[in-house]
Amino acid sequence: MGVPRFRRSKAGDAQLSPNLYVANCGPAVGLSYEDIQSAFGSFGNLRGVYAADESGARVIVSYVEDTCAEAALKALNGRPCPLLGGRSLHIRYSVLQPPTPQVNNSIPVSFEASELNIPGLYLLRDFVSAKEEEELLAAVDDRPWKNLSKRRVQHYGYEFSYETRNVNTRQCLGELPSFVSNIIGRILSFPDLDDSASLVLDQLTVNEYPPGVGLSPHIDTHSAFEGLICSLSLAGPCIMEFRRYLEGAWLPDAASSTDMKVENPDNCSSVLRRAVYLPPRSMLLLSGEARYAWHHYIPHHKIDMVNDNAIRRGSRRVSFTFRKKDIEIVVLGKLAEIL
Ligand SMILES: O=C(O)CCC(=O)C(=O)O
Ligand SMILES: [Fe+2]
């Protein structure tokens, strides 16, 4: 972000403000910020003195109180100012507010899921080769995409409804496509999964995110999907953040709230936050506590700060998310078809 641009007030702008736009004032005309601060400080408490633009000759003087700005304007506008080497200042109220200090909201990003201390979370790097990645992308690019407001999706196995946040059992789309068979086989052979022999992954959502698009914090719908969720990252990297809200115990059956949007999670003091870097070709597995107790979220950034490195998202990130549709849903769906 460059230097913020301020402008002096014009006829018609609301008057009275704690911020003054002061022209003919600044380092380019031989006045230091300390001198300006001390001259204007004699009219009341200052929040600060800021460059109004890149000229070096215009500043914003920001007071705590409107009345102090008013007194300074009356005393100093258009007259030689003895405290500033006799320079004549041109002062108006400033229309824009000076910048409020940015709260650094970022958290350290791990490269390994094991460092996050979230039981049930696994990140498997190089889960597919570069050639497989290319083939998987070509396979989905050959099929029709559905446009959502900010990203494109494809569904296999069962359609997912974004209105109800549930699978649509009336829209069984058939078996998962053969181009993902090897991937599913590889997931099922991962040794840390409980009961992988009986695991069936029958729903696939392919998401394509353009740069700057992420995903709001959510827990995947409990009543729609059972157990393990696996997400393969292709094409571009991103970071995924995890949040756990400390009120209430972890109760997977009771906690049926789904795709819960947390409007302002940063105000919430009782939240644990973790972040992991997802490189292309990696597989993220969410099981147990990671799946049911932690919200996951992809920040809407074009550039991710991974510790001190700025990592630009690619021209797109494509994820393949595999899930198992809840059996009750199938039974209910079949019943609905019969009745
Ligand atoms: O894109 C991803 O890796 C995650 C997708 C996801 O969380 C979801 O579809 O529920
Ligand atoms: Fe999800």
UniProtKB/TrEMBL annotation:
<comment type="similarity">
    <text>Belongs to the alkB family.</text>
</comment>
<protein>
    <recommendedName>
        <fullName>Alkylated DNA repair protein ALKBH8 homolog</fullName>
    </recommendedName>
</protein>
<dbReference type="InterPro" id="IPR027450">
    <property type="entry name" value="AlkB-like"/>
</dbReference>
<dbReference type="InterPro" id="IPR012677">
    <property type="entry name" value="Nucleotide-bd_a/b_plait_sf"/>
</dbReference>
<dbReference type="Pfam" id="PF13532">
    <property type="entry name" value="2OG-FeII_Oxy_2"/>
</dbReference>
<dbReference type="InterPro" id="IPR035979">
    <property type="entry name" value="RBD_domain_sf"/>
</dbReference>
<dbReference type="InterPro" id="IPR037151">
    <property type="entry name" value="AlkB-like_sf"/>
</dbReference>
<feature type="domain" description="RRM">
    <location>
        <begin position="18"/>
        <end position="96"/>
    </location>
</feature>
<dbReference type="InterPro" id="IPR000504">
    <property type="entry name" value="RRM_dom"/>
</dbReference>
<dbReference type="InterPro" id="IPR005123">
    <property type="entry name" value="Oxoglu/Fe-dep_dioxygenase_dom"/>
</dbReference>
<keyword id="KW-0694">RNA-binding</keyword>
<dbReference type="InterPro" id="IPR032857">
    <property type="entry name" value="ALKBH4"/>
</dbReference>
<feature type="domain" description="Fe2OG dioxygenase">
    <location>
        <begin position="200"/>
        <end position="326"/>
    </location>
</feature>
